[in-house]
Q: What sequence folds into this?
């Protein structure tokens, strides 16, 4: 089958289009634009209401609620697929996708309360992949993961029962540890380490228990010999003097 003959099945086969774009971006430029436009339309919908199903509940009626839920699931699956597609091929079209990563960060940080868990998970993993492709910097990824980790802390009672807070915390935390590990593998990335440690110091200055994440992260990175400097020790020293009992115990038990 010729190249143009294969195009007819592309709208229903994102994986095939993804592979073709990577091999020959110029020939499949129009098909890429079609899918990117679809992504933009769905993104705008999610930024308006998160497709969380709340609209149907507010209107009332089992039929309306069921229909809205089915539509939400379909839209979620489509957007997840398209985010994965654009993340894989955005380096082929840097001009057209110049705002893509900022849009993902905005969608995640500003609308995470209403987004389905699967979509939040996909955005986080896609941003991590984009960092590995050098599309975004490690600093940009940390500036996205840190606020998300704090937002889904145990104090986040306003997030709701279906927020999957534990899963999001784990995902954000594990990605932070993995990122800092990879950035310090060949040699110490002192600039990144210092900026992240500054975030930890800021957490310890907060009046609530958010500082516990500073101690958890510092302890784990110390254990892995990633952070082994005086600033890491100072973080745990300040933690030991914290007014929050859990944070203080975590600092005291540091070794």
A:
């Amino acid at each position: 089958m010729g190249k143009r003959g294969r195009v007819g099945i592309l709208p229903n086969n994102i994986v095939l289009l993804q592979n073709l774009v990577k091999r020959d971006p110029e020939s499949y430029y129009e098909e890429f634009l079609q899918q990117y436009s679809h992504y933009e339309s769905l993104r705008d919908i999610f930024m308006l209401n998160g497709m969380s199903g709340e609209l149907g509940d507010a209107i009332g009626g089992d039929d309306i609620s069921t229909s809205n839920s089915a539509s939400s699931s379909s839209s979620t699956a489509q957007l997840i697929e398209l985010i994965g597609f654009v993340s894989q091929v955005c380096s082929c079209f840097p001009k057209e996708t110049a705002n893509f990563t900022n849009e993902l960060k905005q969608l995640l940080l500003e609308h995470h309360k209403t987004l389905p868990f699967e979509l939040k998970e996909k955005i986080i993993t896609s941003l991590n992949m984009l960092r590995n492709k050098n599309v975004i910097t490690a600093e940009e990824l940390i500036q996205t993961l840190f606020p998300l980790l704090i937002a889904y802390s145990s104090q986040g009672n306003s997030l709701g029962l279906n927020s999957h807070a534990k899963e999001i915390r784990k995902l954000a935390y594990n990605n932070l540890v993995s990122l800092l590990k990879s950035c310090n593998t060949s040699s110490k990335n002192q600039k990144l380490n210092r900026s992240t440690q500054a975030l930890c110091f800021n957490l310890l200055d907060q009046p609530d228990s958010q500082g516990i994440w500073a101690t958890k992260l510092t302890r784990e990175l110390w254990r892995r010999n990633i952070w082994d400097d005086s600033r890491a020790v100072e973080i745990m020293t300040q933690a030991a003097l914290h007014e929050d009992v859990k944070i203080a115990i975590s600092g005291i038990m540091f070794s």
About this structure: The chain is about 70% helix and 0% strand. The mean pLDDT is 85. The longest helix spans residues 62-89. The radius of gyration is 21 Å.
